Each structure stands twice: as structure tokens, then as C-alpha cells.
């Protein structure tokens, strides 16, 4: 269903079995590309979310700024390949757009959140951002393309897919809170979010 113009929620896109397969696949990916702690540019203040990536490009945040790069910031190794299951997802929900180059993996412990922000480090805004939620539920907030515009919040569940295209692509959005203990998918309470992005034109 369309939550806002251009913002589509595919509630329960992945069943429990598919979610478990994604979880197991992510374990292999983070074994090769360990979660790292991103920090705010200039201040060096850590974000509460831990991150990794797969695909030819990965999003990183350090004292120097926000950017996409080809290698893991700690190991220096190229990011693991984008798994076919995620390319298939893109082909199903973002058919018109060129294939994604980055899959950002966000890991939220129960107290983690993500402040309102825009995703604008990509050179192409005509392609949507496609997101997959795994593990505990969260409250997701989305607004307009202006920082102080009105916002609405929605709950996201494990297995949900969100597609942010059209006029929602540059909307402010964030994660207010995690609801620990609402899913048994992960060993520990917490949430994983995957966001697939086309970075270059
Ligand atoms: C709406 N992640 O990684 S995903 C991010 O749940 C990010 O971890 C959140 O925001 C998370 O940048 C939200 C859903 C999402 C992603 C991008 C959007 C919603 C969006 C871009 C525009 C509007
Ligand atoms: Fe975002």
C-alpha cells in the first residue's frame, strides 16, 4: 500500500522462512565485512546504529564526512557481493531503475535510533531506495522534503519491504524506537535494516 505519495509498504513481503534465509546470509556477509561504528562528521560523535555494507559500493560515515566507497573502513577489503536474492527484490519492486550498487546494513540494538535525515549522498535520485526490515519491530517516521515539515509514523515488522521513490525519495525520515522482544528471528533483541541504493547515474 502507498503510505505517502511515492512511499510504498509491502507488508510481510518475506515470510518467516525467507527472513531466516536472509538472516543466515547476513551472518556470512558480516563475517567478511564486520559491523563498524559510524561517527558524525567533524564531531566524531558515534551514531547509535552499527553498520556494514555489501555490493560494489558501501556507505560510510567518519570524521571526514559521509560518502560511498569501495572498501570496508576497518579491513580495507572490498565489500562482499550483493546477493542474488536482493537483486531479485530490486527487480520485483524497482523494475524501471538501474540495478542497485550498495546495500547498507543497519544494526539496531534495543536502545538505538536514527534521527530524521535525508538520503542524499547518491548521484541519482530517480531510482528509489528499497528497504528490508528484519527482527524486532520499530517505529519509523517520515516527513516531507523540508526538515520542519509535518511527519507521520508507522510501525515496521520483520519481513516488511519499503520502497521510497518519486516524491518520497528525498523525504526526511528516521527511526524513533525499537520494540525489543517483538520478534524471535534474531538471537538477541534488536533490528536489522537493509537499504538498497543506486549510487551513480
Ligand atoms: C524514506 N534507514 O539507512 S529504512 C538509512 O530503518 C535509513 O534503518 C532506516 O534511513 C532504517 O538511511 C529507514 C527506510 C527508508 C530509507 C530511505 C528513505 C525510508 C526512506 C528515503 C526517503 C524516504
Ligand atoms: Fe535514510
Q: In which range does the helix fraction lie?
A: 10-25%
What is the makeup of the main sheet?
A: 7 strands, antiparallel
H/E element sequence: EEHEEEHEEEEEEEE
Relevant CATH superfamily: Alpha-ketoglutarate-dependent dioxygenase AlkB-like
CATH architecture: Sandwich
Large-scale geometry: globular
Low-confidence stretches at least 5 residues in length (pLDDT < 50)? none
CATH class division = Mainly Beta
Please tell me the overall pLDDT. 97
Radius of gyration: 16 Å
Describe the fold and architecture.
The protein has 201 residues and is mainly beta. It has one domain (2-28, 81-197): Jelly Rolls. It has 2 helices and 13 strands. The strands form 3 sheets. Strands 1-2-11-8-13-6-3 form a 7-stranded antiparallel β-sheet, covered by helices on one side. A 4-stranded antiparallel β-sheet has the order 7-12-9-10, with no helix packed on it. The protein has a two-stranded antiparallel ribbon with strand order 4-5. It starts with a strand and ends with a strand. Bound molecules: N-(carboxycarbonyl)-S-(naphthalen-2-ylmethyl)-L-cysteine and fe (iii) ion. N-(carboxycarbonyl)-S-(naphthalen-2-ylmethyl)-L-cysteine (MD3) is lined by residues 104, 106, 114, 119, 129, 131, 140, 142, 162, 164, 168-169, 171, 173, 175, 193, 195.
